[in-house]
Amino acid sequence: MPPSQKRARRYDPVRTRAAVLAQFAHVREAVRALTPEQLALPTRLGDWTVRELVVHLTMGLSRVTRSLELPEPAGPKPELTLLAWPFSTADRAERIADGTRALAADRPDLDVLYGETAARFEELVPGDLGDRLLPTPAGTMRLADFLVTRTVELVVHTDDLNEAAGLGIPYDRQALAACTRLLADALAEKAPGGSVEVRVPPFAVVQCVQGPKHTRGTPPNVVETDPLTWIRLATGRTEWASALDAAKVGASGERADLAMLLPLMG
Q: What pLDDT score was predicted for residue 216?
């Protein structure tokens, strides 16, 4: 895990909570209309079916509520910061897959599962989050920070679901913004420096990669892309070369090649 190089930007916890619920509601509405044939379709997530992906999307919220039912961890500081979280996910991938398959094997009624998950989240997650610590599989985190990671889970897997089932589930603007910003900041965390400016309008601009630092005017090394392409690059859904070939990414300057730095999350 890269050492922390900067302080994570602050996110409004009330807006983050609302964004999580809004994105989950978008997914739930689409799930209601899925046919058995669509639920049996394959996804780009290994051997997961659409049904397993749909079940997994509920686990992002249920992790929050299950953790809130446990005693608050002792200690004044979290073990895991928000900027460190993206680099902690690869180690848990197998356990996450096992948990998803186990839940899907129970054949739950999907609309009931989504309804119960949303209701418990609204009931147990306070509107004023404060600095409460939360036990998570990767270590204790601030509840407000962990909710930001839920926007990543929801946005990334909404994109997976759209791709697998041919859907057009919309993205809540605040959820998309939080996901984009966290993953952009993670790049700057992984490759600190000021020689490359990465622009993901309208949500994020970060500088990264060691080398001559830009001070004024147009930077000599610039990468620019849209939020969904950036998210796909950061999570390994799209390869750097493919995005360049499809003109989904603009890269100018001899240092503006991020291929060796991506993906950020396994």
A: 64
| Gap between the Cα atoms of 12 and 145, Å rounded | 10
Of residues 28, 5, 6, 7, the one with CA closest to residue 154? 28
SS3 60: helix
How far is 148 from 153, CA to CA, in rounded Å?
9
Rounded mean pLDDT for each run of 10 residues along the chain, 266 residues in total: 56 96 98 96 94 94 94 88 91 73 79 96 89 90 96 98 98 98 97 94 95 70 97 97 97 94 92
- Strands 141-142 and 196-200, sheet pairing: unpaired
Cα R_g (the chain), whole angstroms: 19
The whole model's pTM is what? 0.93
Q: Are the C-beta atoms of residues 18 and 174 closer than 8 Å to each other?
A: yes
Residues paired with 250 in a beta bridge:
224
Distance of alpha carbon 50 from alpha carbon 33, whole angstroms: 13
Angle among Cα 90, 107, 45 to the nearest 5 degrees reads 30
Rounded to whole angstroms, the Cα distance separating 206 from 186 reads 10
CA–CA dist 134, 71 (Å, integer): 9
Topology adopted by domain 191-261: Nonspecific Lipid-transfer Protein; Chain A (3.30.1050)
| Whole-number pLDDT of residue 215 | 62
Summarised one tens digit per residue, pLDDT across range 193-226 is 989 999 999 999 999 998 876 666 677 899 999 9
∠ at Cα 98 (186, 82), nearest 5°? 20
The correct CATH number of 13-175 out of 6.10.250.3280, 1.10.3720.10, 1.20.120.450, 3.40.50.300 is: 1.20.120.450
